[in-house]
Write a structure and sequence with these properties.
The protein is an alpha/beta fold. It has two domains: about 35 residues; about 140 residues, Glutaredoxin (3-Layer(aba) Sandwich), CATH 3.40.30.10. Helices cover about 40% and strands about 20% of the residues. It has a seven-stranded mixed beta sheet with strand order 2-1-5-4-3-6-7, sandwiched between helices. The longest helix is centred in the first third of the chain and has 26 residues. The radius of gyration is 19 Å and the shape is globular.
């Protein structure tokens, strides 16, 4: 009986390995193969810094306040499951690095009342801003040519985009991106 099952098990293992390889290197938006030769020099951060957006409480914020900081800018929406899944790690990243001139900013492409309700039910440690329709325009100017959420942008202290990520991110991935930007003490 085992002799008859062995070829089927081997075939299943091969198919699973091929599927994983296909996903990891081709379909995964943060694949190592897709992280090479990026040219971020054409991405405009000035529209982000010029923007005035409401926080989750409706208080207008001048985004110019983030100039000179390392910014982890995360575009998200309340209706987006991967966006919500990554929020605890973004909160932890902000808590761990806020004393190192790093800020995490959650920019919601959503309605103010939905973000307010969400933040009441699911508090985060980092600032949340609401951009509604303007959010996807800002995301596009910062490299989101696929119009997907979540979308994360790393901006250095000089206001230059140094990395972008399509899809769900994690704390380890972001730490790898921001550590070289931190002042060496």
């Amino acid at each position: 009986m085992l002799k008859k099952l062995l070829p089927h098990i081997a075939s299943l293992v091969i198919v699973l390995c091929a599927g994983f390889t296909l996903y990891y290197f081709v379909l995964n938006p943060n694949s190592p193969l897709k992280q090479t030769n990026h040219s971020y020099s054409k991405l405009a951060t000035q529209p982000f810094f010029d923007a005035h957006l409401s926080n989750e409480n409706g208080v207008t914020q001048n985004l110019n306040q983030y100039k000179g900081k390392i910014i982890v800018l995360n575009f998200w929406a309340t209706w987006c499951p991967p966006c919500r899944e990554e929020m605890p790690e973004l909160s932890q990243l902000y808590t761990d690095y806020k004393n190192n001139n790093v800020v995490v900013v959650g920019l919601a492409v959503d309605e103010l009342n939905l973000v307010k309700e969400f933040s009441h039910d699911t508090p985060v440690s980092y600032p949340l801003l609401v951009a509604e329709d303007e959010g996807m325009n800002l995301a596009s100017q910062l490299g989101n040519d696929k119009d997907v959420l979540p979308y994360t942008v790393i901006i250095n202290q000089d206001g230059v985009v140094v990395e972008t990520y399509f899809g769900r991110i994690n704390k380890v991935l972001l730490e790898t991106a921001i550590r070289p930007l931190l002042p060496h003490s």
